[in-house]
Design goal:
Blueprint lengths: L20 H6 L14 E7 L5 E6 L1 H5 L4 E6 L21 E2 L5 E7 L2 H10 L2 E5 L18 E2 L3 E2 L1 E4 L2 H6 L3 E9 L11 E7 L2 E6 L4 H11 L7 E4 L15 H13 L3 E4 L2 H7 L6 E9 L5 E13 L20 E11 L12 H19 L3 H7 L17 H12 L12 E2 L2 E13 L6 E6 L5 E4 L9 H13 L6 E4 L16 H21 L10 E6 L1 H5 L7 E13 L5 E11 L6 H21 L4 E2 L4 E2 L19 E4 L18 H4 L1 H13 L5 E2 L3 H4 L6
Parallel strand pairs: 1-14, 10-29, 12-13, 16-17, 21-22, 25-28
Antiparallel strand pairs: 1-5, 2-4, 2-6, 3-5, 7-8, 9-17, 10-15, 11-12, 11-14, 15-16, 18-19, 19-24, 20-21, 20-23, 24-25, 26-27
Helix pairs in contact: 8-16, 11-12, 14-16
Length: 703
């Protein structure tokens, strides 16, 4: 079996339709909570109602007497788990309560309604203890960690920042704050689990079932061969499903205890406390520049919080190590452990929050120097990555800024703030840059050629709505020199070859390289055949473990530029986005249709970050107040204009065989700053606390 003599045109780079689109719109795509094995029971968790303390009694007898209730699990009778690498999964193992919302019990019943009602009525007694919910700023227990999230050094210094800043001709010193933000995917965090002869099967809403399998194996002291985790269709996660969450552990525990399948979907009001969130940050940015706007000194100092359960430090100062020329630099993180829920990943962690502060400060520097904000950024383009000194594999930020300015009509902008007014509405425009690192993880895949001329690609990638099935098929078709419709992709099960989770904008690069390698090996094997393939077909395997371990001599990042226009209502304080445009340099775009969706999705989340999304930590009670979509305001259709996402044709030979970078997260990174800068340009006032809600804006607006 040889490749066709006239290969089909390239599949990668074409506008291919999502392969699962029809399944999703017709309801055939089944999610974790839609699997109901025979005899399935339903579980409902019980969150702690104190901010810190110990459970002294669980009145399970009252609940067990109810018809339809099968079990009440607590630290008194739950299956014992081995030590967890992630202590947020050490559930029902003792009576300690580290924060409000921590799960202290689980009710299992015949129906979800019975389980929820019983969980609501379960009486739990506590011995409360004095708690500390912050604030983090100036807290006496603030400390400097060794690392921030992602393994980045918590502190980096170059040159003599203090001396250079003190002698700079122009200086900006500003502090920016953000409240906590929550992921809130539409699909709940859900799992369906059952045991058969000591083997565990789970359907889990997860961004990586290989990781889930490994964690369950450790917790339940099982061989990974005895566990199967399926995540075939996942309805978004944005980081909150990046690692195992309580539902999968609790469902497996309940199934083990009852001997029957158990389904558990976490209620939305619980999510703020148990599936992670973007931590609130206080970010001080100081920039010193010469009279021409060239940066001499840059400091980005971040204060944030974590829980007493687990250290998680939002790496918000890290982007400042990449973005602009800065011979004298200080970037640092400080954190305090509080009696609050544990923060975790949320789309573009570190970059999203850090670039809001940095790009807002750059706008303030543009005002202070009298330079156009685009020109200021162009004047501070570094020749190499400032902190590492490594050359960039490609860096087309300047091209993104110029192309975005052209498309947006930036040159027609009146730089004076607060002058464009029509009745009670003020109009302004703003710009911000964006960056996100290129990440690569080890992955495996197999490619199989059937005698009928079709191919099957198998790997445990996870499609969280990004179009992974489609893009991986395109990569395979090109490597196989085969028509796209001859390639089928199987993914979303730990029974398939191991692959990393969908996160860090690394999925396509990591999975795609393994797929490309498997397909290339398959073509070689087929070419060596002297006759037709055997009836069982031919299979080849790809493994990129060695490549992923190698440290690149290049600094590898995607870049982008965001341009925004807003209208500010001087009567109500409401901000309306009238235009939002992004231009990105993210390597080769493998599928324009799904890429545009990714960019626009990120930009929409950036609108929420800037204008609507905010979470209040009740320091008296230790929990988040906004716990549903009625009080936590994500952008809806009425908030989102006709967004524009464009990209450059960027060639970067230092990435992977596809030449692709990640695109899932860079869309959010610069959006909030561009909008905040546009609000300043519209109203002439600079507010540094997100979100820019009407109550915050209105006192500062002119009549």
């Amino acid at each position: 079996m040889c490749p066709p003599s006239t290969p089909p045109g390239p599949a990668a780079g074409t506008d291919a339709v999502r392969r699962e689109a029809r399944q999703k719109v017709t309801g055939q795509a089944r999610y974790a909570a839609e699997h109901t094995p025979p005899g399935c029971l339903h579980a409902a968790p019980v969150p702690a109602t104190v901010a810190r303390g110990r459970v002294t009694a669980v009145h399970a007898g009252e609940i067990l007497a109810r018809p339809g209730v099968h079990a009440v699990l607590s630290h008194e009778n739950a299956p014992r788990l081995k030590d967890a690498d992630d202590p947020t999964l050490s559930l029902l193992q003792d009576g300690l309560v580290p924060h409000r919302g921590w799960y202290v019990a689980l009710v299992v019943a015949d129906t979800p309604e019975d389980a929820r009602a019983a969980a609501d009525d379960l009486r739990v007694d506590y011995a409360p203890e004095e708690h500390d919910a912050g604030p983090a700023e100036d807290h006496p227990r603030l400390y400097t960690p060794e690392e921030a999230n992602g393994g980045h050094p918590a502190v980096r210094e170059r040159g003599d920042f203090d001396a250079a800043f003190a002698t700079s001709a122009v200086r900006v010193d500003a502090t920016y704050t953000m409240t906590a933000l929550h992921n809130h995917p539409m699909e709940p965090h859900a799992s369906t689990a059952w045991w058969t002869d000591g083997d565990l099967t789970v359907h889990d809403s997860s961004q990586g079932s290989t990781t889930v399998r490994g964690v369950l194996a450790r917790l339940f002291d099982l061989s990974e061969r005895r566990i199967t985790v399926d995540s075939v269709h996942v309805g978004g996660g944005f980081g909150s499903k990046g690692t195992p969450r309580p539902q999968v552990v609790l469902a497996a525990m309940a199934a083990l205890h009852t001997g029957r399948p158990v389904k558990l979907a976490l209620p939305r009001p619980h999510l703020a406390a148990v599936v992670g969130h973007r931590a609130p940050t206080v970010q001080r940015v100081r920039i010193g520049a010469d009279a021409h706007g060239v940066i001499q000194a840059l400091a980005h100092e971040v204060t944030t919080q974590t829980s007493t359960v687990k250290e998680f430090v939002e790496q918000a100062a890290v982007p400042a190590r990449t973005m602009y020329t800065s011979p004298h630099s200080r970037t640092s993180h400080r954190v305090v452990a509080l009696d609050v829920p544990t923060p975790s990943w949320m789309r573009a962690p570190g970059e999203a929050s850090g670039m809001y502060a940095l790009e807002s400060a750059m706008d303030e520097l543009a005002v202070a120097t009298g330079l156009d904000p685009v020109e200021l950024r162009l004047r501070n383009e570094p020749e190499t990555e400032p902190d590492s000194g490594r050359p960039f594999s490609s860096r087309n930020l300047a091209a993104c800024l110029r192309e975005g300015a052209r498309r947006f009509g930036w040159e027609d902008r009146d730089p004076r703030p607060g002058v464009r007014r029509s009745g009670g509405r003020l109009t302004g425009t703003g710009v911000a840059a964006a960056t996100y690192p290129y990440l690569l993880s080890p992955s495996t895949a197999t490619a199989h050629a059937a005698p009928d001329g079709t191919y099957v690609i198998r790997l445990n990638a996870t499609d969280i709505g990004t179009g992974a099935r489609t893009v991986l098929a395109q990569i395979a078709a090109d490597a196989l020199h085969a028509p796209l419709d001859a390639v089928r992709v199987e993914l979303g099960s730990s029974a398939l070859p191991d692959a990393p989770l969908a996160g860090g904008s690394s999925g396509t690069s990591s999975w795609g390289w393994a797929v490309h390698r498997a397909c290339t090996a398959l073509v070689e094997r087929l070419g060596a055949l002297t006759g037709p393939p055997p009836p069982e077909g031919v299979t080849a395997r790809g493994d990129t473990s060695e490549e992923a371990k190698k440290e690149s001599p290049y600094a590898r990042h995607a870049f982008g530029a965001h341009f925004a226009e807003v209208e500010v209502d001087t009567v109500t304080g409401e901000v309306r986005v009238s235009r939002l445009l992004g231009v990105f340099a993210a390597g080769r775009i493998l599928n324009p249709r799904t890429a545009r969706s990714q960019f626009i999705g990120g930009m929409t989340m950036g609108i929420g970050m800037a204008l609507t999304e905010g979470s209040t930590l009740d320091r008296e009670f230790g929990g988040f107040v906004e716990r549903d979509l009625a009080s936590y305001h994500v952008p809806v259709s009425a908030d989102v204009p006709s967004l524009e996402a464009h990209w450059l044709d960027e060639e970067d030979p230092h990435l992977n065989p596809m030449g692709s970078k990640g695109i899932g997260e860079i869309g959010i990174v610069g959006t909030a700053a561009a909008l905040a800068n546009a609000v300043h340009h519209a109203a002439g006032v600079r507010l540094r606390d997100l979100p820019l809600t009407p109550d915050r804006l209105l006192p500062h607006l002119p009549d």
